[in-house]
Amino acid sequence: MGYDYQLGTYEAGPGYAISGLNNQAKMTKQQSLNQAFVKKSLAGGTATLDTFLEKTYHGYNLQNFFQYKHAGGWTYFHSHARWDEGGQGYPAWEALTLYNNYGTGDFLKVTTDSVPSWDVPKVMRKKNPTQVRRAAVDNAPVTACYASQKDDRFTLFLLSRKIDGFPIKGDDGYTPVTVNIPIKSAKKVTLYMLTGDPRSHNVFANNAKITSKIIESKGNLSKFIINAKTGTDDRGLPPGSTFCYVFEGVE
User: Fold this and answer.
1) Burial 36-54 (b: 16+ CB within 10 A, else e)
2) What is the CATH number of domain 106-248?
3) Residue 124's Cα: distance from chain center in Å?
4) Regarding beta strands 188-194 and 211-215, do their DSSP bridges make them parallel or antiparallel, or are they unpaired?
5) What is the number of other CB atoms lying within 10 angstroms of the CB of residue 167?
6) How much of the chain is helix, strand and coil, in % rounded to 5?
7) Backbone angles phi, psi at 229, to 5 degrees
């Protein structure tokens, strides 16, 4: 009683099943490799950033990634590939660089008018099928929006939790997005993107990487629509993608 405290994490990032850990049965080399393809994918990077932003929005002051180092192989929690495998950053770490560089400042309240959603079923524990490992979530939103402000810089994060064909079979995975933002003008708008095939991964090569482009900043920006003029195409936010819009010199 009487002590101050702060919320934080000491190990965060894509989790892995490891032989013997938490009663995990022995993993084959192929299982571990398949797992690495998923955890080190573009979609995995977006999901990692999503969790860090969500925790920040709810008051977490300190969040630590698992390990900042090049891996002794392609498995597990490291941030970068070995030098003999290219030395590239894995998408989870690449996505977090956007958080570190542009997500600082005060996080703003985001009010959702409407968003596509999906019912996420519960997951039971394999060794004890009567125990719930993850509770069901009704109407889980399939896109996420976060905003922060520091001095005259405003940052808008848009993240897709969809991939093509899931959760809706045959869907291209794009989501139309319109955001009402609390600024009228900006001297400069830059879009930083982690986008492409959500299943692409950086296990052996730098396939999923951040790209950027300058967005037209003339006119009233308060009704911001994700389309061809703002960096993608008129279908909206691509599946599994991270879009980070940085507005500088805002009014």
Assistant:
1) bbebbbbbbbbbbbbebbe
2) 2.60.40.1180
3) 25
4) antiparallel
5) 16
6) 20, 35, 45
7) -75, -20
Q: Where are the domains of the chain?
A: 7-102, 106-248
Enclosing H/E stretch for 79: strand 78-80
Tokens standing for residue 132: 């719930």
Q: Which residues contact 5 (CB under 8 A, 6 or more apart)?
A: none
Name the one residue in this structure whose structure tokens are 């980070």: 244
DSSP code for 13? S
Q: Is the pLDDT of residue 196 over 70?
A: yes
Length of the chain: 251
Lowest-pLDDT range, 75-89, 177-191, 223-237? 75-89
Q: Which of 84, 74, 59, 60 is nearest to 12 (CA)?
A: 60
pLDDT band at 61 (very low <50, low <70, confident <90, very high): confident
Q: How far is it, in rounded angstroms, from Cα 126 to Cα 82?
A: 33
Residues 6+ apart with CB under 8 A from 168: none
Which helix H or strand E contains 134, and what residues bound it? strand 132-134
Q: H/E element holding 69? A: strand 67-70
Nearest to 148 by CA among 190, 112, 107, 95: 107
Report how far residue 220's alpha carbon sits from residue 197's, in angstroms, rounded to the nearest whole number: 32
Residue 102 DSSP SS3 = helix
**Calpha distance 122→132 (Å, rounded):** 7
Cα 26–Cα 24–Cα 205 angle in degrees, nearest 5: 70
